[in-house]
UniProtKB/TrEMBL annotation:
<keyword id="KW-0744">Spermatogenesis</keyword>
<keyword id="KW-0282">Flagellum</keyword>
<keyword id="KW-0966">Cell projection</keyword>
<dbReference type="GO" id="GO:0031514">
    <property type="term" value="C:motile cilium"/>
</dbReference>
<protein>
    <recommendedName>
        <fullName>Outer dense fiber protein 1</fullName>
    </recommendedName>
</protein>
<keyword id="KW-0969">Cilium</keyword>
<keyword id="KW-0221">Differentiation</keyword>
<dbReference type="GO" id="GO:0099513">
    <property type="term" value="C:polymeric cytoskeletal fiber"/>
</dbReference>
<dbReference type="GO" id="GO:0005813">
    <property type="term" value="C:centrosome"/>
</dbReference>
<dbReference type="GO" id="GO:0030154">
    <property type="term" value="P:cell differentiation"/>
</dbReference>
<dbReference type="GO" id="GO:0007283">
    <property type="term" value="P:spermatogenesis"/>
</dbReference>
<dbReference type="InterPro" id="IPR002068">
    <property type="entry name" value="A-crystallin/Hsp20_dom"/>
</dbReference>
<keyword id="KW-0217">Developmental protein</keyword>
<feature type="domain" description="SHSP">
    <location>
        <begin position="1"/>
        <end position="83"/>
    </location>
</feature>
<dbReference type="InterPro" id="IPR008978">
    <property type="entry name" value="HSP20-like_chaperone"/>
</dbReference>
<comment type="function">
    <text>Component of the outer dense fibers (ODF) of spermatozoa. ODF are filamentous structures located on the outside of the axoneme in the midpiece and principal piece of the mammalian sperm tail and may help to maintain the passive elastic structures and elastic recoil of the sperm tail.</text>
</comment>
<dbReference type="Pfam" id="PF00011">
    <property type="entry name" value="HSP20"/>
</dbReference>
Length: 83
């Protein structure tokens, strides 16, 4: 699969952090949105590309969605993410 997911738990003496990585190489950052709500993280990406020539019109469309449940005890406002 082109989409690879990795999950790892990092431990320190102060806290425990959960890390999820998603390969989004087929999308531009402007195509990706992340929502954290009601104990879930939703990653959504959509990309549409149209090309016109005098003879042919093509359209390429990609969509990706992944939803994660937050671990017990983690509140929505504790979640951070970056692209």
């Amino acid at each position: 699969s082109r989409i690879q997911r990795f999950s790892r738990t990092l431990n320190s003496s102060h806290s425990q952090c959960h890390l999820a990585l998603i390969d989004m190489k087929d999308f531009e950052p402007r195509d990706v949105s992340v929502e954290v709500k009601d104990g879930k993280v939703t990653v959504l990406a959509e990309h549409r590309e149209e090309r016109n020539t005098p003879v042919l019109k093509t359209c390429n469309y990609r969509k990706f969605m992944k939803e994660f449940n937050l671990p017990p005890g983690v509140s929505d406002d504790e979640v951070t993410y970056s692209l």
